[in-house]
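Appendix C reproduces, verbatim, an entry submitted by the partner laboratory led by Prof. M.T., so that reviewers can inspect both the input and the predicted structure.
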Amino acid sequence: MTSVTTTRKRRTASVRRAEIWTAVEARAHFSDLIEKAKSQGPQMITRHGKLAAVIMSAEEWNRPQQRRESLTEFLSKSPLAGSGLQVCRLGFLAGRFSVPDDFDQMGSAEIEKMFDGECDEKPH
């Protein structure tokens, strides 16, 4: 990533895009940084010229993240779909195991608890 330097004058533009702040600027103008994140969207903070953090509003953070489409739907829209491309599978594990229908949801409650800092087990 290239080094980016900004000035206060440039940051005053009312353009809705991620702004770039150095760590020193962010620390010195933290209240402004929060207000910009609320009104203009995510604010990027660099340290030594490299992206180090992104500050966003609580509203944006809490916005539900929805899966746009499944992998199957995505692949069905591929330019290669229906092209007759043959996929060769080795099949050496065929019939040796099965994947449950709810595989992508297994353990979701436990994982959510872990992200919330609630863990049933003590660290090893």
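The domain at 8-61 is CATH 3.40.1620.10 (YefM-like fold). Additional entries are available on request from the coordinating office.
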